[in-house]
From TrEMBL:
GO cellular component, one term: membrane
UniProt-recorded name of the protein: Succinate dehydrogenase subunit C
Native source species: Desulfobacula phenolica
Keywords: Heme, Iron, Membrane, Metal-binding, Transmembrane, Transmembrane helix
Keyword Oxidoreductase assigned: no
Residue ranges, compositional bias (Acidic residues): 268-307
Length: 307
């Protein structure tokens, strides 16, 4: 009884609440980043040129005189996102079951209650565990190669580098973890609660499910497009899209030049030559001999009449 009184008189720490706040903040930033990141990556569905345009603008190419951008911008972005990722993961591990016994207790309670929110939390635990490893690999690749965001280089990494299984697992984990996390943040902090909390919950659940389906669809489609590009580009691994596009433009320019020269040659060969007969006739008409013969012919009838 004395020990209970002593424990109850202790000042409660606010540190868990502060850690929850930091975890929620980093989760919100990372969730929005995932939305934007998947949209940018899925621009490959519109074509290699569209993805190249997006990637170069992410490298701040619009601030560059040459238009090549600054890969160092990607380097710093990876550092910021990687730091937030590590902080969020370390704070999330606090609530993971750390032993098989705890895991069995949670599974038994989930089966007994069949509570949807608890099931979503468990999905976040599993996907978060997967992301801790798969996401770290992806961040390291981008950290070591900040200038490799390119249609061909990305496709080569996925196919020739045999990274597609990792990216497929990471894609599913990120979409589930991120969207479920943003939904649970709204529920935890009462965002968009409105006057009718039950109706707001159903609306957010519907939005969550639609966002998951949308991002899974465009993510898988984008990954398939990268796989097709990588298979067709196996013989030219390491080639950049910009160099390939420049070479194609030069070939087209040469073909256009040859076609224009051929048309000019054909036009010159088809020009009609001036007829020498016409010139001769004109010379004859203008010659003095012809003029004298015409005057004699005109004067002959006059002389006969005088005789």
């Amino acid at each position: 009884m004395d020990s209970y009184i002593i424990e109850s008189n202790k000042k409660k720490s606010r540190m868990p609440a502060r850690l929850d706040l930091v975890q929620s903040g980093t989760g919100l930033i990372l969730g929005v980043f995932i939305w934007m990141h998947l949209l940018f990556d899925s621009s490959i569905i519109l074509g290699k040129g569209a993805f190249h345009f997006v990637s170069k603008n992410l490298e701040l190419a619009f601030l560059s005189d040459t238009g090549h951008g600054f890969p160092i911008a990607v380097f710093f972005a990876v550092i910021v996102i990687g730091t937030l990722f590590i902080i969020h993961a370390m704070l999330g591990v606090r609530k993971f079951p750390i032993s098989w016994k705890q895991h069995r207790i949670i599974r038994d309670q989930m089966q007994m209650m069949n509570h949807s929110e608890t099931n979503l939390w468990y999905i976040q635990v599993v996907t978060g565990f997967i992301m801790f490893f798969a996401g770290s690999v992806h961040l390291y690749v981008m950290f070591a190669n900040p200038g490799s965001i390119d249609p061909y280089l990305s496709a080569d990494r996925i196919v020739s580098g045999h990274m597609w299984p990792l990216y497929l697992v990471l894609l599913v984990s990120v979409v589930l973890h991120g969207n479920i996390g943003l939904y649970r943040l709204c529920m935890k902090w009462g965002w968009f609660a409105g006057k009718d909390a039950r109706k707001s919950r159903k609306t957010l659940q519907t939005l969550k499910n639609r966002l998951i389906m949308f991002y899974l669809t465009i993510g898988i489609l984008g990954l398939l497009v990268f796989v097709v590009i990588g298979i067709n580009h196996r013989d030219n691994v390491g080639e950049r899209y910009a160099a390939h596009a420049t070479a194609i433009e030069q070939v087209h320019a040469m073909e256009d030049t040859r076609e224009s020269e051929g048309v000019q040659t054909l036009e010159e060969s088809q020009e009609p030559e001036e007829s020498p007969v016409v010139e001769d006739n004109q010379d004859l008409e203008e010659s003095p001999a012809m003029e004298e013969s015409q005057e004699l012919e005109e004067s002959q009838p006059v002389e006969e009449s005088h005789e």
